[in-house]
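User: Show me a protein chain along with its predicted structure.
Assistant: Here is one chain, sequence first, then structure tokens.
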Amino acid sequence: MNITVVGSGYVGLVTGACFSEFGNHVTCVDNDAGKVERLTRGEMPIYEPGLPELVERNVRAGRLTFSMDLARAVDRSLVVFIAVGTPQGNDGRADLSFVREVAAEVAQHLDAYKVVVTKSTVPAGTGQMIRRIIGMSVVRLAVSSAADPSLTDLPELTRTTRFASSASKPSAASTCDGPALPVAHAEPVET
């Protein structure tokens, strides 16, 4: 399966690396050219035990790539993760501006069915906001109803350390308008 992860910070990079370890082809998209170049060379922007080896193994196997080309990545993928930063605003709330921007940009490139997953740390109700943003774009672009995406959340259910280890064994996903759903476990691909 082809997956796009938008955002190559802590959550996005680890998520992309873990999904590639399961045998998926993952493109981590970031708008920072320097970060994309460093990641392509194997330089990690964060410290996470085991992450450099995980990234190197999957880049070498051709399952993990880094890019700035969101349109191409979305076009090639069935699943698109939104894993961008949500820094605290001046009022103490999560700043969702990056999530809004990415949702709108992803919507611009929907021409076939996709699953859009919120992986960013976001407050309740964000899934509905993303659904509205994408829905407005799909209508405005007069895209076929076949391109109407499914939207879901994959919340952070991880320990504060060894994120790569716990992210590789997720226990639940939730729909934007429903309860948590169990997630089937997969074993990493041997290379």
